[in-house]
Design a protein that fits this description.
Strand 1, helix 3 and strand 2 form a beta-alpha-beta unit. The protein contains twelve helices and nine strands. 43% of the residues lie in helices and 11% in strands. The structure holds NADP nicotinamide-adenine-dinucleotide phosphate.
Length: 363
């Protein structure tokens, strides 16, 4: 059979039409993302002399955000739970951004002891912090208790950021003008608030609804913290990065991962997913804007009703303070978990002398 007869067969004809349609669809999705995304290249914000902390900086959106912050001159602390993965990301970010101001901090956000230890070292190294991006998160886990008695998903996605942000509050305020960016998800609208979920109890959850609920708690926390920080120069907002093809589904079964991979054709890549987070971190027009939730198109939108309720927010705040012992003094070296903050060029942990930080909790 000649090539011409193969090409002119109905199967080939239908196949090529389908292929062209898929490619056109992909092209239009790319154009749509480009058109609707904030124009990062036209943002002139320079971060020389500023300090930024990004959690979950070794992968996906966190890595892309860290790279852009480093490219703009910031000293970036890559807060990662795995030293190995963190070091690899650090080397890649350094090569891409040509920055020599990168530090790696080890912290497991599901462990309060690890967060306290990390915060202690961090505050010794960086008395002023201009930007905190609470990006790290997990999904795809069933209810699982950590050794500290917290639910793993809620601990990583909500309680951890709550504790870390509160411990760093003094350094954020000392910076004069600082931003906290909470990376949320459109999935928050599928969640509901039940404080008992924090300790692995409460109303039963459908598959992966713990992720949705944890992101809803983050939205409630964003509003409450913004209210508490009013007048301090620290703003706090949350943002949905949109659907991006990253490692976020790595704890799901292979069938879900294959589906995610197939659909990734139409998703953003990590760099595009980072743009809304960078908008909240960099855009000058957001100076003084606080307590807001932004969509993946960088537009202010209302969070779900439950996250707007001031009574719910206060109750959640009180419970979170109690669970994290934030109202009790910080005892250095106490607790499980390890954290190190190491300068790029040193192979061992550098412990700088300094006073022991105390939590910045205000009633
Ligand atoms: N991708 C999307 O479509 C999408 C959509 C909506 C919202 N988001 C949000 O975007 C953020 C970034 O996610 P991503 O898509 O970039 O996913 P990712 O590639 O899986 O990155 C998640 C990061 O969080 C870290 N992490 C997880 N558990 C941790 C812990 N206990 N302590 C410290 N770090 C921990 C991971 O570290 P390891 O590498 O060590 O696991 C990784 O660096 C998340 O908040 C996610 O909820 C993503």
């Amino acid at each position: 059979m000649s090539l011409w007869s193969v090409l002119s067969s109905p199967v080939w004809g239908a196949g090529s039409v389908l292929l062209i349609l898929v490619l056109l669809l992909r092209l239009s999705v790319r154009m749509w993302h480009k058109f609707y995304l904030w124009d990062l290249q036209h943002c002139s914000t320079d971060l020389t002399g500023k300090t930024a902390v990004v959690t979950g900086a070794n992968s996906g959106i966190g890595k892309a955000v860290s790279q852009e912050l480093a490219r703009r001159g910031a000293r970036v602390i890559l807060a990662c739970r795995s030293r190995e993965r963190g070091q690899q990301a650090l080397a890649e970010i350094q090569a891409a951004s040509k920055s020599s101001h990168l530090l790696l901090g080890e912290v497991d956000l599901s462990s309060m002891a690890s967060i306290r230890s990390f915060a202690q070292r961090l505050l010794q190294e960086c008395p002023e912090i201009h930007l905190l991006v609470n990006n790290a998160a997990v999904c795809g886990f069933p209810t699982t208790l950590t050794p500290e008695g917290l639910d793993l998903t809620f601990a990583t996605n909500y309680t951890g950021p709550f504790l870390l942000t509160n411990l760093l509050q003094g350094a954020l305020q000392r910076a004069g003008s600082a931003r906290v960016v909470n990376v949320s998800s459109f999935r928050q609208s599928h969640g509901y608030i039940d404080e008992d979920h924090l300790v692995g109890a409460g109303r039963p959850l459908a598959f992966n609804q713990n992720y949705d609920c944890s992101k809803l708690l983050l939205a409630s926390f964003t509003g409450k913290l913004a209210q508490r920080l009013r007048g301090t120069g620290v703003t706090v907002n949350s943002v949905d990065p949109g659907v991006a093809y990253t490692k976020i589904m790595k704890h799901f079964s292979w069938s879900y991962r294959i589906l995610f991979w197939l659909l990734s054709f139409f998703f953003k890549d990590s760099k595009q997913g980072a743009v809304p987070v960078l908008y909240l971190s960099l855009a000058k027009e957001l100076d003084g804007i606080s307590g807001k939730h932004f969509s993946s198109s960088c537009v202010i939108t209302l969070p779900p009703e439950a996250a707007q309720d001031p009574h719910v927010a206060q109750s959640l705040w009180n419970t979170s303070v109690r669970l994290t012992n934030l109202d009790k003094p910080l005892v250095p070296g106490l607790g499980r978990g390890s954290a190190t903050l190491r300068p790029l060029d040193q192979g061992v942990c550098r412990v700088l002398p300094g006073r022991t930080p105390t939590p910045q909790y205000r009633d």
